[in-house]
Amino acid sequence: MQAVSPVPLKLNGEKALEDLIRQGDWQNLMTYDTLEQAKENGFLYQYEEGTIDFPPTFKYVRVRDSEAISRVMGKQMVHPTANVTREYAKDRDPAWCDRVLVKALPECVIKPLKYSVDDSIMTSDHSPVFATFAMNCVSPPSLDEPFFECDIVVHSLEVIELKASERSTPDPVSQSQIKKKKTVQATYRFGFMDEICRYDFKVGRYKRKSTLHRQKKNVYGSKNPITLGPFITTIQNLSCEYMQVKIRDSDMKYGSAVISLHDVAFNSTPPGGTESIRKTDFSGIMIKRSFPRGRIQGEFSIRWKGILANTTQLRSHKRADKQKDLWGLS
Predict the structure, then answer these.
(1) Nearest in space to 85 (alpha carbons), one of 116, 120, 50
(2) Are the C-beta atoms of 280 and 263 separated by less than 8 Å?
(3) Nearest-CA neighbor of 145 among 280, 270, 301?
(4) pLDDT (tens digit, 9 = 90+) per residue, 146-189?
(5) Which of 93, 186, 204, 210 is the most exposed place for a label (fewest CB within 10 A)?
(6) What is the pTM of this model?
(7) Which CATH number fits domain 147-327: 3.40.50.1360, 2.60.120.260, 2.60.40.150, 3.40.630.30?
(8) pLDDT in tens, 80-118
């Protein structure tokens, strides 16, 4: 979730603005909202917001009744909220601010339940906005599930439609710099697997790099397989994990894409089954500073290496001391 700075409404005519607010015509008001206009140009790509059905929340001026002022020990005291009313400031247009925006990871479901404002809090020139959600959560691996060793094999990777800037239409000079690049570099990282699924337990986060060569105009790729891992995990836990792919060259970072491991985890041959490789297609949008900067696509698979059939084997595994502590198996 992300909080956004005050975003003013740009409307011609103060009277028209006051009429829309008085009528509660939020749908028409939103057409003048500069955040909505920026999102149409690619800003905050893939971020979602609930329906706004409350008045603009900024900028207010507090107005106190004279009865709210008293004198204590010769000093003038103002009770913070007693007999207080508010009105919009005259020096600027009202605005919706402190917006709650949500971006869900692939395979993650976030359902908005409520999006509203609390006008009872009057200690600021803003009215606070809040939102509530329901979402699916990942449970820790069950101690009754079988653990296994595996590698993640990326068989091919392509980067296409690279953009050199956040503009919806990149300038020709910036795009010409991309055309001169013969290679770009891909870096593979994992999220929670850095903490609970590492097998080698080396210091620092797990990451691997590979080089992608220019194949044709604005397309870079490699068909040389790269092996990531090994890891110790369960099928269920692996299906809830993500692979992050960052793309850059010697001069510029283009962005990163997040790929779910859900499909490849369940599409691969189960541990103990017939040895084979089942490749799964993947694709994702590269994002940088909330703007889309290109796409990646490719194939990957899971290579099973062996089963630790129960927690007893995991406890006795010679390289799993740190794993036992993280999973509470000591």
Answers:
(1) 120
(2) yes
(3) 270
(4) 778 888 999 999 999 888 765 555 554 455 566 667 889 999 98
(5) 204
(6) 0.74
(7) 2.60.40.150
(8) 445 557 788 888 888 888 899 999 988 888 999 999 999
